[in-house]
Design a protein that fits this description.
By secondary structure, the protein is an alpha+beta fold. Helix content is 57%, strand content 11%.
Length: 623
């Protein structure tokens, strides 16, 4: 295994091949030509490239940032990214999960998410460029005409052309239905697009030959709100019938945002049709824009969950290395000994607490992301009830993963800074950048408040017979049953009790919905999501313990104390499984009990939010 500052290589393999058994997908015709060796080679190549090509330029890209020339309207991305992007494209990583017939690699989702984690941990900003390109290409693959697929897909999946996702407008952020961008039908079947989009990631840059924008707009005369929205393909440059680049398509970047983090990512304001010459091409059917865009949004939300995981992973990895090498203070058992030698801070109980806390969350989040991606693949290859169950797992876990992993990323990157102490707060060390980069993940692709409402309302309460939640509980119950006789009862009981308490919450919410108490429900959405995230990680830790405890015992046997420590220092596999058991025990025993306090707060049904009017927030300026 490759020691590196980004991800625990061994844990990536553990989740993929020991927990999810991704190599067994070979039984399905779609993956018949794949095997474990191919998957490992793909991951190893990604890690090598990320460590050698991307990670070294992350700090400089953050320092230099993206530049905008107001005279030429050009956007210049960090030069250091371009070599890595070319190699990324040449390796075929843009279309990892796409069919080889259209230029993809045909990989399962779990392998793709692992590769995504690796590159994102090297530089989040770097991955925004190929990530948006793939998302836009996937929309065309799923909803485009044969002519559109032929025109765009090969060049987008090869990395020759880029892509974006154009939803947000100055007066329509999360309220997408309020958008003002319009599409005027033209005699030739195209549409004249006119409007402005803001906060567009990878909206313009000097790397791609062309950029393909999926743009939400309303066809003139169509109804207001989300039901009247259509989606259009709008290329930066028009494309000639032979596929060559034509003239500019009246799409102009009017400026870039100067942000707290992700400085290497071009976040653009785009003007469409200022000169009345922006051609758009309808994607799919009219007034189906939101439904089509949500196909990309679900992929994007899983991608943002992975960003939270990746930033947390690299922050944790850096913190461990720093703690191993920072000599400060004496061991607590020697604090009364004036002659005691100084030790590395990793020997101090509070530092070990911080590292175990980070480790428990990172490993739980990795399991969550990979498991989610794996189920997305199972939807494609299974039939009947098994397919339906996989779909239910994906639906309920998407908002949990997006909100939970990104909320945690801000806390974990902050904790990494704490391990470094004052050095973590200065830009000489990398962890402060990870915290700055992490904040946006709570906001874009649907704020975490929106994820919480989506989870509580659409994915649970409005889901017929709460099927999604029922299947999630079924999987939890299976993990509990498998843990019997392997995992100590005290840990199993925590998860069982957690499920029972969550049932109480869902029952209360159902009663409130039946009584029309929607204000009560919406006031509780975020606490419910936070609690479900904690319960989800508890379930996944319990699941992994059924595998790690026997392996730990196989390696370590009855060794204890100094003998055990000496053995672990010489045997990496023994150290790995022992560490996995301890991080799971720490999460379940020291972190998960906080879940029950959250549940009690929800069940208390406090109504202060409902009673609060805008005038009770006193002492502030009014405008």
């Amino acid at each position: 295994m490759m020691r590196n500052p980004l991800v625990d290589h061994r844990d990536v393999y553990f989740v993929l091949f020991e927990v999810l058994e991704a190599d067994k997908l070979q039984q399905f015709s779609k993956f018949a030509e794949h095997d474990k060796d191919m998957y490992e080679a793909t991951i190893d190549l990604a890690l090598k490239m990320a460590v050698e090509e991307v990670y070294p330029v992350n700090k400089e890209a953050d320092k230099i940032g993206v530049r905008y020339d107001p005279d030429t309207k050009k956007v210049i991305i960090p030069e250091g990214y371009k070599g890595g992007l070319r190699k990324y494209n040449e390796a075929g990583f843009v279309g990892m999960i796409e069919d080889p017939k259209i230029g993809g690699m045909g990989m399962p989702g779990a392998i793709a998410i692992a590769v995504n984690e690796i590159f994102t941990s090297a530089s989040l900003s770097f991955t925004t460029y190929p990530g948006l390109s793939h998302g836009a290409a996937a929309l065309i693959e799923n909803f485009g005409t044969d002519e559109q697929k032929k025109l765009y897909l090969e060049k987008m999946l090869s990395g020759q052309w880029g892509g974006t996702m154009c939803l947000t407008e100055p007066e329509a952020g999360s309220d997408v239905g309020n958008l003002k961008t319009k599409a005027i039908p033209q005699p030739d079947g195209t549409y004249l697009i006119q409007g402005q989009k803001i906060f567009i990631t990878s909206g313009d840059n000097d790397f791609y030959e062309n950029i393909i924008h999926p743009v939400l707009a309303r066809i003139e005369g169509d109804p207001p709100g989300t039901k009247g929205i259509s989606i259009f393909i709008v290329p930066k440059y028009r494309i000639n019938p032979d596929g060559s680049i034509g003239k500019l398509n009246d799409v102009v970047c009017s400026g870039i945002e100067h942000k707290m983090g992700i400085h290497g990512s071009a976040t653009c304001s785009l003007n469409f049709g200022d000169n009345g010459a922006c051609a758009g091409y309808l994607l799919g059917q009219p007034r189906k824009g939101m439904k089509i865009m949500f196909h990309m949004m679900n992929e994007a939300r899983l991608g943002v969950a992975c960003q939270g995981l990746a930033l947390s992973s690299t922050a944790y990895m850096h913190a461990v290395t720093y703690a191993r090498n920072r000599i400060q203070g004496v061991h607590v058992t020697q604090m009364l000994n004036p002659d005691a030698q100084k030790v590395a801070i990793i020997e101090h109980p509070d530092v070990k607490r911080m590292l175990l806390w980070m480790k428990g969350y990172v490993e739980g989040m990795r399991m969550l992301n990979y498991y989610l991606a794996h189920n997305a693949t199972l939807i494609e290859v299974l039939d009947g009830e098994a397919k339906k169950e996989a779909q239910a797992i994906v639906e309920i876990l998407i908002p949990i993963a997006k909100a939970g992993c990104t909320d945690s990323a801000v806390l974990i990157t902050s904790e990494a800074i704490q391990v470094y102490g004052g050095y973590g707060y200065i830009s000489d060390y990398p962890v402060e950048q990870y915290m700055r980069d992490a904040k946006i993940t709570q906001i874009y692709e649907g704020t975490n408040g929106i994820q919480s409402m989506d989870l509580t309302m659409r994915k649970i309460l409005m889901n017929p017979e709460q099927y999604n939640y029922t299947i999630m509980k079924k999987r939890m119950s299976e993990a509990i049953a498998n843990a019997k006789g392997i995992v100590e009862e005290k840990y199993i009981n925590l998860v069982e009790n957690g499920m029972q308490k969550m049932d109480e919450v869902i029952l209360m919410l159902k009663d409130q919905m039946a009584s029309g108490k929607f204000l009560h429900i919406f006031a509780a959405c975020t606490p419910v999501q936070q609690a479900m995230f904690m319960l989800t990680l508890a379930w996944l830790h319990l699941w992994t313990m059924t595998l790690t405890i026997p392996k730990m015992k196989e390696f370590v046997g009855e060794k204890k104390g100094e003998e055990r420590d000496a053995f672990l220092s010489e045997n990496e596999e023994a150290a790995y499984y022992s560490g996995k058991v301890l991080s799971s025990q720490f999460y379940l025993g020291a972190e998960f009990p906080k879940f029950f306090g959250k549940i009690d707060a929800i069940l208390f049904n406090e109504t202060a939010i409902i009673k609060a009017s805008k005038d009770i927030f006193t002492g502030t300026v009014l405008e």
